[in-house]
Design a protein that fits this description.
The protein is α/β, with parallel strands linked by helices and 357 residues long. It is built from nine helices and twelve strands. The model has no long low-confidence stretch (mean pLDDT 97). The structure holds pyridoxal-5'-phosphate (PLP).
Length: 357
């Protein structure tokens, strides 16, 4: 979270704009919260340049719940009446693997491409994807948070001969770069990596994809029901929406998504440059697939891992330990991480190499 946003929320905690209430005490249908909600939605639409024919839904359940909610709503899109349909998956890391597994409970699934055998270090070229004729959608995780793999552009499914809709899980890089909505049917993401606190899930869906849910789809998770009720079919996560709204205002003050992208490129170049500079550290991801948000790296001498982490903590560099499924280190340098934070990490890495290399 940007420090400025936390300070503003603290200031408004007990009394929001002279209303005599904190945001957590407001009715979600009252005029105060309605104004917070409408501003948040409009700011997000502007920041992500979401076209008018897409709905923005504020939901709950996180990215993991969406792994079920997406097939429940979209798998039957191109299926014969009464069928549950099918979906294609491009498996590029832990998160798309999870999405595939969950969707398989609700519909037929096909792995169109996978780099599991390669240890999830690159993105299979779109020209090699085995897309099926009948799939309702193709799922991609456009930033694999754990493996540090990011799509640098979105595939054009039509040009690949597929009639399916593109579904992207953009949880961990939303608002860090622009989205080409002409290629996307639906995008979803948990808010907690780049937009705000945990508890809010963002769904951006083209209107014509609403209304195809399977009969077993829970009402609170039916995109059409949620859209028809302005994301208030059930009580939305009001405080998380308010906090995300403050982050959207902060993003606009920074110059919007284009300015964030330029900063994120500079941050990532600095860190990957330091990793590649000598043989002391290494990142195994193909250059064209490296994530700007999540940078996993390893010390060639893994016996030094504990010393590296202890020193990092002492230097105020927190949460540098890699995900347990991958090991090593991982720097998550989301939007709210200033370049100074990356400079401090690089300085520490160079110092550590000097004393331990
Ligand atoms: C964190 C994350 C999720 C899971 O989000 P939850 O809110 O914990 O359900 C899903 N996908 C990606 C790419 C993530 O980084």
């Amino acid at each position: 979270m940007p420090a400025e946003v936390l300070a503003q929320a603290a200031h408004e905690m007990l009394d929001w704009h002279g209303s005599g209430m904190g945001v957590m005490e407001m009715s979600h249908r009252g005029k105060e919260f309605q104004s917070i909600y409408e501003a948040a939605e409009a700011d997000l639409r502007e920041l992500l340049a979401v076209p008018a024919n897409f709905k923005i839904l504020f939901m709950q359940g996180g990215g993991l719940a969406e792994n079920a909610i997406v097939p429940l709503n979209l798998s039957a899109l191109r299926a014969p009446a009464g069928g549950t349909g099918s979906a294609d998956f491009v498996v590029t890391g832990s998160w798309s693997e999870k999405s595939l597994k969950e969707a398989s409970k609700y519909c037929q699934t096909t792995v169109a491409a996978s780099d599991k055998a390669g240890g999830f270090t690159s993105i299979p070229a779109a020209s090699t994807w085995q897309l099926s004729d009948q799939a309702s959608y193709v799922h991609l995780c456009t930033n694999e948070t754990i493996n540090g793999i990011e799509f640098q552009s979105l595939p054009d499914l039509k040009a690949l001969g597929s009639q399916a809709e593109l579904v992207i899980d953009f949880s961990s890089h939303v608002a860090s770069r622009p989205v080409d909505w002409s290629k996307v049917g639906l995008a979803f993401g948990g808010a907690q990596k780049n937009l705000g606190p945990a508890g809010l899930t963002l769904v951006v869906v083209r209107e014509d994809l609403l209304g195809h849910a399977l009969p077993i789809c829970p009402s609170a998770f039916n995109y059409k029901t949620v859209a028809d009720n302005g994301s208030m079919y059930n009580t939305p996560p009001t405080y998380a929406i308010y906090m995300a709204g403050l982050v959207f205002q902060w993003l606009k003050r920074q110059g919007g998504v284009a300015a964030m992208e330029a900063r994120n490129i500079a941050k990532a170049e600095l860190l990957y440059g330091a990793i590649d500079a000598t043989g002391f550290y290494m990142n195994g991801v193909a250059r064209g697939a490296r994530s700007r948000m999540n940078v996993p790296f390893f010390l060639r001498n893994e016996a030094l891992n504990d010393a590296f982490l202890t020193g990092a903590k002492a230097a105020g560099l927190l949460q540098v330990k890699g995900h347990k499924s991958v090991g090593g280190m991982r720097a998550s340098i989301y939007n709210a991480m200033p370049i100074e934070g990356v400079q401090a990490l690089v300085q520490y890495m160079q110092e550590f190499e000097r004393t331990h290399g």
